[in-house]
Structure formats: C-alpha cells, structure tokens
Specification:
Strand order of the largest sheet: 5-6-7
Helix content: 25-40%
Structural class: alpha+beta
Length: 121
Amino acid sequence: TGDLFRTDEEGFLYFVGRKDDIIKTRGEKVSPKEVENVLYSLPGISEAAVIGVPDLILGMAIKAVVVVDGHLTAQDVIRHCARHLEDYMVPKEVEFRSELPKSDNGKIARREIAAALEAAE
C-alpha cells in the first residue's frame, strides 16, 4: 500500500507515514509525519509540514514549514525537535507562513509546498 508502520513491544502497529513521502538525509530515512507530530506537540504551532530540500552535503535536508499562533523563533522550533528526535531528523531550516496550502479534502498539501520552494530557487 505504501503505508509505513512501526511496531511497539506489545505488537501494536503505529502509522508512521507513506513510503513515497520519505526523506533520505545523511543516509537515513526520515518520515515527515514523525517530525510533524513532534512539531505539533510544541505549543504555538497550529500547522506544520516537513519536506526535504536539496543539500550538497546531506543529500536532502529537513525543512519545517509552520504556521504559529504566538511568538516562536526558528531556534525555539529546532531546540524542541532536538529534544524529541534523533539528530538526523531535526529540521535544519524553519520557514514561517501565515497559512499552508490545502488539498480539496482539507489536508496540508506538502507536495505543493515543495513544488513552490523548488520554483523559487
């Protein structure tokens, strides 16, 4: 199906993300959904999308695109992620937006964000 799951000690399955959304950075595979879940646990983040952006050294770097309610800095976001994620999963860049594009069914359109960033380069 392309869906990725992890299993806990008791055998319960947890949805991690989609195979086609996986970001390969530093030789490791990163599920954007896993990073987004940590971003949503930071008070003040109302919307989040994680994408891979080209990086000469890493191959792909993790970029977080977020909408915040209140005042957060990029350093606040990165520090929070560093406390809750493996080092290779921590976003190297954070971009703040007033809103994120949505698909017709109301989900955040991660591919649209990535395409817009590519076009801007």
